[in-house]
Write a structure and sequence with these properties.
Strand order of the largest sheet: 1-2-4-3-5-9-7-8
Largest sheet: 8 strands, mixed
Number of strands: 10
Distance between the termini: 46 Å
CATH class: Alpha Beta
Radius of gyration: 19 Å
Structural class: alpha/beta
Order of helices and strands: HHEEEHHEHHEEEHEHEHE
Number of helices: 9
CATH superfamily: Zn peptidases
Shape: globular
Number of domains: 1
Helix content: 25-40%
Length: 362
């Protein structure tokens, strides 16, 4: 792995110096989605992880883990960067964690690396998780988007870079137009995870519906319409949501909400990664994509959530990372202890929904 990581750094250096040139235009169109950067906001990137940082951190964690962590590549991005992921644990139950599928949603990478670091520790909870679970951690799903320099001079666009510029990778698990999507689908097919978690930043400022109380953390409990879950999956979605809510709702003024329109149980992001993990039945090359197609695997996850955290660049970014970590630890522990089915979900309907306000109004 050390030799491969050295070559990854070399590729990254070539991209940075322009010897590997993006095929896309420099000005990225605006899209909905995070993060919400407010007017007059000073965005400090000193603590933000970029691709070289991910390579270095994964190398450090792998070397210092004494064999607990292995780092591999699922393939290459459109610009030739390795699509790195780490595996820790030996259990039969597989838990998939991904961050930075949107290249400008920066804190997911840092959070994923900190979770991976913790999983190698001597904490009894981490030891239990390693024994009962196999955890797959993808700190930077979209390295090209994370590294792309915008016209304003900041790194990071939401989508891909090449061959399709700014294609939303979290809307690409039906057509599979990007090499990143194809590579990570193959990893999904190979590892067959039982649970999945996806880190995001919300693209607007939000308050608890009907109040002026800022919500910093939204739990994405229904990436597909409620009617499309199996009965067992929908129960698991609610149980996972309650575990996360109970773990973080008491921390400061977090004000946890459920993501999505309050009165729309048909809310459906069919082509998102965890949506297709829940639904199954797809594969690269199937219609409407061009042949040759691949045979869809007969596998779906038992449960999958996405987290939508408030915007990056605030003084409270450390709190947002901590919320990622606390909520993820709670979920991993609950699954490792095999108590998710016993989780009380009676309070699920009382978790409020958010209401969007303008990004610069709070």
């Amino acid at each position: 792995m050390m030799r491969r990581l050295s070559s990854v750094l070399a590729v990254s250096a070539l991209v940075a110096t322009g010897l590997l040139t993006p095929v896309a235009a420099q000005n990225a169109p605006q899209h909905p989605g995070g993060p919400c950067i407010q007017d007059q906001q000073n965005v400090s990137l000193e603590s933000i992880y970029f691709y070289d940082d991910v390579v270095s951190e994964l190398d450090r964690i792998e070397r210092s883990s004494h064999g607990l962590v292995t780092v591999n590549s699922a393939g290459q991005s459109g610009e030739g960067r390795e699509l790195l992921y780490a595996t820790v644990g030996t259990g039969d139950t597989v838990f998939w964690i991904q961050g930075r599928i949107h290249g400008n949603e920066r804190l997911g990478t840092q959070s994923a690396l900190k979770i991976l670091d913790w999983l190698t520790s001597g904490d009894p909870a981490a030891s239990l998780i390693r024994e009962e679970l196999t955890v797959i951690v993808i700190p930077m799903y979209n390295p090209d988007g994370a590294e792309f320099v915008t016209a304003s001079g900041l790194k990071g666009i939401r989508g891909s870079v090449t061959p399709n510029f700014n294609r939303d990778l979290n809307r690409d698990w039906e057509i599979f137009s990007q090499p990143e999507s194809i590579a990570f689908w193959h990893l999904f097919a190979q590892t067959r995870p039982n649970y999945a978690l996806d880190y995001h930043h919300v693209g607007e400022a939000h308050v608890i519906q009907g109040t002026n109380e800022l919500t910093q953390f939204q739990i994405g409990h229904r990436p597909i319409a409620v009617s499309r879950f199996t009965e067992e999956q929908w129960r698991t979605q609610r149980a996972m949501t309650m575990v996360v809510h109970d773990a973080v709702d008491h921390i400061g003024s977090v004000n946890v909400t459920r993501y999505g329109p309050a009165q729309d149980p048909g809310f459906d992001i069919t082509n998102a990664v965890i949506s297709r993990m829940l639904l199954g039945g797809n594969a690269p090359g199937l219609p409407p994509a061009a042949p040759p197609g691949e045979t869809p695997i007969d596998h779906t996850v038992d449960g999958a959530l996405f987290f939508e955290f408030r915007n990056v660049g605030q003084k409270g970014s450390g709190l947002l990372v901590q919320l990622h970590i606390v909520s993820t630890k709670a979920l991993l522990t609950e699954v490792a202890e095999a108590t998710l089915d016993d989780q009380d979900i009676s309070g699920f309907d009382s978790i409020p929904f958010p209401q969007a306000v303008s990004c610069g109004s709070l």
